[in-house]
Amino acid sequence: MIESSASEIKPTPTGRFTLEPATILMCLLLGVVAFLVITPLTLMLVNSFQLGRPGQIPTYGMDGWVQAFSDPSILDALWNTVSLAVTRQSIALVIGIVLAWLIARTDLPGKGGLEFTFWVSFFLPSLPVALGWILMLDDKFGLLNIWLQKLPFIDSAVFNVYSYWGIVWVHMTTTLGVKVLLLAPAFRNLDATLEESSRSCGASTFGTIFRVVVPLMMPAILVSTVLGLIRSMEAFEIELLLGVPIGLFVYSTKIRDLVSYEPPEYAPATALGTMFLIVLLVLVFVQRWYVGRRMYRTVTGKGFSTRPVSLGRWRWPIFAAVLLLALSVTLTPIVMLFMGTFMRAFGYFDIPDPWTLENWQRVFTDPFLVQSVKNTILIGLGTATAGIVFYGLIAYVIIKTKFAGRHVLDFLSWLPWAVPGILLGLALLWTVFQTRVLLFLYGSIYLLILALFIKSMPFGVQITKSVLLQLGPELEEAARISGGSWLQTYRRIVLPIMTPTFIVVGLVGFMSAARDISTIVLLGSAQSRTMALLALDYAFGGQFERGSVVAFMTSIIVVVTALCARIFGGKVGIGSAGH
Amino acid sequence: MRRYIGIFIAVVFLSIGSVGESAWQEEWDKVLKAARQEGEVAVSGPAGVQSRDALTKPFTDKFGIKVNFFGASGREISPRIMAERRARQYRWDVFVHGTTTGLTVMVPAGAFQPLRPALILPEVTDAKHWRGGGLEILGKGAEIGIMTPFQRGTIFYNTKMVNPKQFKSYKDLLDPKWKGKLAVDDPTRPGPGQATFTFFYLHPELGPDFIRALAKQDLRIQRDYTVEGDDLGHGRFPVLIGTADFLIELKMKQGLPIGIVDPRQLREGSDVSPANGAVAIYKGAPHPNAAKVYINWLLSRDGQRIFPKIMGYVSARNDVPTDHTFEWRVPQPGAIKTYDERAMRNKKKVISLVQSVFRRRR
């Protein structure tokens, strides 16, 4: 089926713009990306051997590596990390694929609203979400446990959020959201005739999903899996809250520990961080090997059908199940977060006067609020716009041209993930000061935009790439034959088809910028304070409820941006374009 | 004749006094004028809305000088400052953080200038206004001023589960009835938990043996002191050792069922620490005059009526009220300091000990 529908991927004739301005542009792109991603990584590696204290004369040696890997608990932490990541990704992947297929390919009622609900779950801040789940699932005071224990046949707590499965569940709230966010646009680019052919050959619905749809969607599925695994390795907020009290430690908390010593122990921290490079190299190798074996074009010059698959009598029961899942991963945390903003002390219902408007009043009269909102929107939009333009260009060069450096560019675009998030801000700080090339931007929001752009590059480029792989060469060839230049082809053919994907890329860039703390703390200034730092200010001051107000407002800004982008995307996306 | 001599002496003294007064006043006016021309002061201070409120608006309201305040923990700000300095970038004027960052990173790197030459106002320089006979200044070049040394609370309890009167000594925590029921802010990482274990280590009646015995009580290690108080209030554990006590005080005011054991009822007392109340001027400050005005204001009666009150600390000045917090927070004479050079010298040993005794829990 795959072979019959898609031809071997070969660089298009558009790639023959060799000595044209396009070639110069591509060389420039390669040079800039190489500088931006190799420098921080190299500096991280060099600093893993640097033993001198901050501010003192550098001395070099292996002590950091010895210290990092001689800790007997590191193996346990590594095992916990891998186990949690694989468990969580396996469950989320299966459910995510089914959800994305239901939303993108079937006649499921209210699928647009359901998809957006899952998006919202991804936009929610993780700490308040975790606290919300503690309030529901704590074995002592969790509301759900208390309600369940009122049943005659239940006499002890059913759930305990402070457990391995508690951590998996709380993560699932956002993991499912990101799977739907990433996979649904790729599923939409699938020509319905492929599914119809499968069914007409006698395959069942599930047979069609797993033997036709899933193999064709492998680039997007693999990218989302690699993304998920790397992100799982980096995660520490929820593990810190739910894992530490039961003695469950993960790899990233070890790195965080070393960075948070005074003075910080960067040598062993960066040595531990190199594990990410190894994992990344393995995952990228597997992904490239798998994707390189097959062809995945689903959008070609031939007719393109988007006719949805009928769910028949299962339509409404499936709708009910998806709705229940969507609401449980979205509504519960939102209600808890929103409720928390009106509480004197989060989760305490039995104190005198538990409800108050003071939190909102205090935040709305905060003199730094307006500037923080403005900075958040500016930095978010800047990161999103830069991401859409440059990630799209990078992905296009990798997939659609014959440029000699395209494989290097592809590899480079993964590399920012080789530096764990907690160390990336630091690596970028070293890049600014040790190369001095970017020093003129220091303290301005432009440097923050650039840093966040680098941080999101693997995500943006790989997601765009996975969808570009679905595009056959015929459309661009037609444009070229009609006299269109490379840039005109990109602007008038590729860009409209890719719009839904670019919206996702832009949104994730916007959201990362709105949430980021580590990069902004190290590179920002008093003038570039964002809402994430404002929320942190409240949390550090023991005013978590007021911090929740800011976090809630941030989520609203992201959701409104997503809604606007969705409305815009709905007008120009592939489905609406009537291909 | 004697009368005339008396009048003469009085006139001489008054003249000397007025010359002294006019000298500092003249210097102050000159510095203030130059500071206003500089127009701003860049302050790195602790993260937290309280510190931002205390360290920005009141100063700007009084002097019309803008405060560029950047809030972050000491461990976040130190690598940034060090990287800037290597690139010869000098962007900060005033440091307001804890002494650990100051003494272990900034002072060895020569990042601060001596503090005393910047002190101008008599109410700051005059020893009589300070508890203990003068402003305490630490660092090999006397760079870090200690604004807010206060007695810390170290044992916290759930009021529905524990009678605090039973604690007469820290050794009461070794009673088998507490096994598996005690939680602690992770002493292997910098923070209030580590400060508490430094106190245990330095106290002659407690020391390393007490730490080893306490570790055998199967302590539940906590990592986030912003949520530890909530967990204590929910009864996840009845007793918590060494969390951020000003946050507990805040949560007590919110009505949570938690309390702090009065250190005065404990035989060994508790330690003294300024928390984030250490102040210094960066070497190469871009706004040197504004930095001087800021430091003098912060250490003045005016500044010390605001900063310690908002932060929940106690000022080292003896002419500002302390009634915003517990009476016992005023430092006891002879109390162990967990913030000075001696404590810093011992920190490595403390960390090594707690890492070894708590390893199986990590």
Descriptive notes:
The complex is a heterodimer of chains A (579) and B (362). Chain A is mainly alpha-helical. Chain A contains 25 helices and no strands. Chain A has helices at residues 2-5, 21-47, 63-70, 73-105, 111-123, 126-137, 143-148, 164-188, 192-200, 205-216, 218-234, 237-243, 251-260, 266-293, 315-340, 358-364, 369-400, 406-414, 421-435, 445-468, 474-481, 486-515, 518-523, 531-540, 544-572. In chain A, helix 20 packs across helix 22 and helix 21 packs across helix 22 (486-515). Chain B has 362 residues and is of the alpha/beta class. In chain B, the strands form three sheets. In chain B, strands 1, 2, 3, 4, 5, 6 and 14 form a seven-stranded mixed β-sheet that branches. In chain B, strands 10-9-11-8-12 form a five-stranded mixed β-sheet. The longest helix of chain B has 37 residues, at 2-38. The relative contact order of chain B is 0.18. At the A-B interface, helix 13, helix 19 and helix 24 of A face helix 2, strand 2, helix 4, helix 5 and strand 10 of B.
Question: Topology, pairings included?
Answer:
The complex is a heterodimer of chains A (579) and B (362).
Chain A: H1 2-5, H2 21-47, H3 63-70, H4 73-105, H5 111-123, H6 126-137, H7 143-148, H8 164-188, H9 192-200, H10 205-216, H11 218-234, H12 237-243, H13 251-260, H14 266-293, H15 315-340, H16 358-364, H17 369-400, H18 406-414, H19 421-435, H20 445-468, H21 474-481, H22 486-515, H23 518-523, H24 531-540, H25 544-572
Helix pairs in contact in A: 2-18, 2-19, 3-14, 4-5, 4-8, 4-11, 5-8, 5-15, 5-25, 6-8, 6-15, 8-11, 8-12, 9-10, 11-14, 11-20, 13-14, 16-25, 17-18, 17-20, 17-22, 17-24, 20-22, 21-22, 22-25, 24-25
Chain B: H1 2-38, E1 40-45, H2 49-55, H3 57-63, E2 66-71, H4 74-86, E3 94-97, H5 99-106, E4 112-113, H6 122-125, E5 136-138, E6 144-146, E7 150-151, E8 155-158, E9 182-185, H7 192-202, H8 207-215, E10 220-222, H9 225-233, E11 239-241, H10 245-254, E12 258-260, E13 272-273, E14 278-282, H11 288-299, H12 301-311, H13 341-357
Parallel strand pairs in B: 1-2, 1-3, 9-10, 9-11
Antiparallel strand pairs in B: 3-14, 4-14, 5-6, 6-14, 7-13, 8-11, 8-12
Helix pairs in contact in B: 1-11, 2-12, 4-5, 7-8, 7-13, 8-13, 11-12
